[in-house]
Design a protein that fits this description.
245 residues; alpha+beta
């Protein structure tokens, strides 16, 4: 049994937060909500999406797993108005996901979950430095960095958060005292990351009131975004190793 109803905008934003990294996924269904854990083909970025049952307008399920083609689901959801309700229902007999919105009805073929990659184990990370900032500000930093380079460094020097990108001829730098951020924990940290991945994450971040960023020294970064109440996406991105000159 799987039948849920949710606001179209919330569902679109949730699917977009993972579809830029993976095209297919296994959705774990439980009494408390839905969860997706996946990693991109290059094993550089891990994503975990959690949607609590309370984020749905109607939620009636039996625990289990569903294999979904995110590209086809995203195409179908593009036809829904943001303020509409979207109904998702499982047709187990025909292995279809029924998607209904505004009079439209789609039947999307499901993917055999045995053909999908095994969901990754999300590691426990205790990073020394973290900051909270406005979602639009994080997106702004990534957009500015992308204009000059394909990578960005995040760091902290005592109580100042620093983000910088350097290209062959141009560079850009963002600095702000921790006391002027939404929150944070000071310390020493510096790591370099690919902007191709961060650009995808920034799409979700830009729609959220705030984001939570954790960093260390040449260590994976953790980015947590609350897409809506009860809908949380978490990214874990491996660092780029800086070449010594």
């Amino acid at each position: 049994m799987f039948k849920v109803v949710i606001n179209a905008k919330i569902l679109k934003n949730a699917i977009e937060s993972i579809s830029s990294l993976v095209e297919e996924c296994k959705i774990e269904v439980s009494d408390t909500g839905l969860e997706v854990k996946s990693v991109d083909a290059a094993n550089i970025c891990m994503v975990c999406l959690k949607m609590a049952a309370s984020s749905f307008e109607f939620f009636k399920t039996t625990p289990g797993s569903i294999g979904v083609d995110l590209v086809r689901l995203e195409d179908a959801l593009a036809m829904a108005k943001d303020d509409e309700a979207v109904a998702l229902q499982l047709d187990e007999e025909n292995m279809k996901l029924l998607v209904g919105m505004g009079g439209l009805s789609y039947k999307l073929s499901l993917i055999d979950i045995t053909a999908l990659r095994k969901p990754p184990v999300v590691p426990e990370v205790d990073l020394p430095v973290w900051v909270d900032m406005a979602g639009f500000e994080f997106k702004h930093i990534i957009k500015a960095a992308k204009k000059v380079s394909d990578h960005i460094a995040f760091g902290m020097d005592d109580a100042k958060f620093i983000a910088g990108a350097k290209g062959d001829i141009d560079s850009v730098r963002f600095e702000r005292e921790l006391s002027l951020m939404l929150g944070g924990r000071h310390g020493q940290a510096h790591s370099l990351f690919s902007l191709d991945y961060l650009e995808d994450m920034a799409k979700a971040a830009g729609k959220a009131p705030s984001v939570h960023l954790e960093i260390g020294n040449n260590y994976p970064m953790r980015l947590v975004i609350e897409i809506a109440k009860g809908v949380l996406v978490e990214y874990l991105l491996a660092p780029r190793i800086e070449q010594e000159s």
